[in-house]
Design a protein that fits this description.
7-stranded mixed sheet; 10 helices; globular; 44 strands; mainly beta; binds CU-O-CU linkage; binds copper (II) ion
Length: 642
Amino acid sequence: MLTRRQLLRLGIVGGAAVLVPWERGVVALASSHATTPFAVPLRIPPVLAPTATDEEGDHYRIEIRSSDVEIFPGLPTPMWTYNGEFPGPTIRARTNRPVFVTQVNRLQIPVTVHNHGAHTAPEHDGYPTDLIPPGAERVFHYPNTQEAATLWYHDHTMHQTARNIYRGLAGAYLLEDDAEDDLGLPSGEHDIPLLLMDRTFEPDGALQYSDSADSMLFETILVNGRVWPYHEVAARKYRLRLINASNSREYELALDNGQPMTMIASDGGLLAAPHAAESVVVTAAERAEVVVDFSDVPVGSSVVLKNLRGTTSNGTDDVMRFDVVRSESDASVVPSTLRSIPAISAAAFVRDVELSFSFEHRLWVIDGQPFDPERVDARPQLDRPEAWRVTNVSGSAHPFHIHLAMFRVLDRDGVPPGPAEAGWKDTVNVVPGETVTLISTLREYTGRFVYHCHNLQHEDHDMMANMEVVAAAPVFSDIAGHTHEQAILAVAAAGIATGYPDGTFRPQQAVTRGQMAAFLTRGLELPPGPGGAFPDAVGHAHEEAIAAVATAGIATGYADGTYRPQRAVTRDQMAAFLARGLDLPESGTHSFTDVAGNPHEPAIAAVTQAGIANGYPDGTYRPRHVVTRGQMAAFLARALDL
Ligand code: C2O
Ligand code: CU
Ligand code: CU
């Protein structure tokens, strides 16, 4: 984070460094390099040629190296680049045709490369600590077993992603397929990737950057590495692939002649149908593809692409200008149906994710904790549609991104999303106070992947978490041969309620089914049913209490035998649940003092000592970490007086 002194220093060295109110967590930095908008032509990043093409797929080689980039004519800007290009060269790939990219690290620091939106094995996903040492090289395998989409590759180095992307490490990866080709959309030179980035420049053209956990808004807008460029177009349709590769800035794009754009695709490729959009929003890492028809724009006139979320006084409300310089015949079309997108799957599992600012850590956090590559924060099951209810309890927006697969946005605070978010997504913005529910079904690859905020300052400091994608657990049958619903299976897998042929359930030591039911009944304040029997989702009889604890999300386990609650419960809920479960007086003496010096019920002390729940400043209790089967068993053994 910039100190006040650093900012003042930047103010002297770099011109008008402006600190907008701290409580909004934003640092705005103005360039001191004078720039005239719309003075330089747009650059189209070159399409990378394969070094070899064989039956395996297409092979590419990229050197990650320092290079002087000519952003300002005649003035070199020292950057870190892919092959000396900024943005990096465009990779054009085809669905089901594998791509192998050899990344050669010629920098003095270790780095990694992630292909954002790609369906890849974990060892090819650019995990933040899976680094290519200086001087070494690494082959990344992208199988491209997914539909056409605008992806982008970028640096993903632990705690350095913001700086490394800022210094230049990003490029477009355009995946194409036959179905999309057959639509007849604008193509070739009429299909243009536009990487939107903001930067701040010193008078000598050098980049200005000082790392910060706060959002960084740089006040010079670049498209494909050129400052406020212009592009000469024909009076016809163009396909524009908008990629927000900025550290923090969000854009709401609109044409200054009031003409709507036709939005055709989002992160995961084509929408089901095009829709006319007055404006299109891309928050960090999001993509939106639009078709703009310049045929009604008189030759000799111009249309400016505006950023409605920018500021007029510093020019960040301008993005680029299209100069219509000639007429041209246009055989391209935008069909009214682009592709079929399936209905959103019903969730078979619900996961709650909380985005916040931790005053304890002075960091952005997910579920109260800074990123730890050694800790597993979620264990999604392969092929299981899972609802992620992502709640932002902080004062800043967070573009939330999950690796490995595209997802669907189910709703924002219960309201279904508009057409721009109705297709496949890999990043979704969550504004303060909002809960976005998305449905994600991860396929094919098990292993470790990250999910995180894509505001790069937040991502590095430290709003990222680790998921271990696991294979689906085997179907569990009880002694009567009944299958159980997955939640109960999970409890069983955690060793809490494993059925044995003698009819007992046990964690470490055997307890009777009655004891377990009694414990859980007390815990959940359920009336003991007749014989404890109840019909579950598939019509089998179970003890009400055991099913209830599972469906309440209190006792969900994971295939590897670890166990943890699914969501934050309030202090009162936790206290009441535990007090009942432990047979403690509901209100009693507060004999326990937590780390902050607050007294608590003895039950909370017990659960805290067991490592299951800790208090947070917002008054919720939640697990600090995954607990092992043994820890849970020990806790339950105490709870059950064994
Ligand atoms: Cu753009 Cu973790 O990625
Ligand atoms: Cu990604
Ligand atoms: Cu964020």
